[in-house]
Design a protein that fits this description.
There is one protein chain. This protein is α+β, with helices and mostly antiparallel strands. It has one domain. It contains 3 helices and 14 strands. The protein has a 5-stranded mixed β-sheet. It starts with a helix and ends with a strand.
């Protein structure tokens, strides 16, 4: 009887957690331009509210750390997806619409940059992310600094093989994002030309009674 009560209690807890769990976006690296001046990424998923697919793509001017003109595209469907659907179809559809822009900025989906850091699911990040790029000999120490309740900046110390230290910052702490409960650095990419960093940031957004996972990027040129 005791084991049965424990099982019922566990199932009830899981059901309660599921009721308050929102939808989790899937991040997609869509590549850099041939000259590494632009970076494109997407995210997609199934809406927790409507059970329908949605997708977004963004084209970022790396040097300006801002969207290129008309660089943000979004689509959200109203018809509920079939069981087992991931929403990738919505991303493929929006990518087709963005093809002229992709060609204009010479974005190459094969130029994904080099992954310097990734936070593995289930692992809690340390306050300072420290890692080394063995290909270049650089060492990195990256800190995400919260500024107020809904904004942040990223501070990175880059140490070259010869001991030279360079400071890099990304993000605008004056930008407030209402509803965001937390930020987390999930990936750090080095542009194909080796001159820029892309920080992939996970956002935990509060939406009424649920929390949704979304992504954004911050970019910085190496001095």
């Amino acid at each position: 009887m005791a084991k049965r009560l424990v099982l019922v209690g566990a199932l009830s807890l899981l059901a309660a957690l599921a009721a308050f769990a929102g939808d989790v976006a899937q991040f997609v690296n869509l590549g850099f331009s041939a000259d590494s001046k632009y970076f494109m990424f997407g995210q997609y998923g199934i809406s927790e509210k409507t059970s329908a697919p949605w997708a977004e793509t963004y084209l970022v001017d790396v040097a300006k750390n801002a969207y290129a003109p008309a660089g943000a595209r979004k689509v959200a469907y109203t018809r509920a997806a079939e069981a087992g659907t991931t929403g990738m179809g919505a991303l493929l559809t929006i990518l087709g619409d963005a093809l002229p822009q992709t060609r204009q900025y010479r974005v190459d989906h094969m130029l994904s940059g080099r992954l310097l850091y990734i936070l593995v699911d289930g692992v809690s990040p340390t306050e300072v992310l420290e890692f080394r790029d063995f290909q270049t000999g650089r060492s990195y120490a990256v800190t995400l600094v919260r500024s107020g309740s809904t904004s942040f900046r990223i501070s990175a110390k880059v140490t070259e093989r010869n001991g030279t230290v360079r400071e890099v910052t990304a993000g605008d702490p004056s930008i407030q994002r209402p509803g965001v409960k937390s930020y987390l650095v999930r990936q750090i990419l080095l542009a194909p030309d080796g001159s820029s960093l892309v920080f992939v940031v996970q956002k935990d957004e509060q939406d009424t009674k649920v929390s949704n996972i979304r992504y954004m990027v911050e970019t910085a040129r190496l001095p």
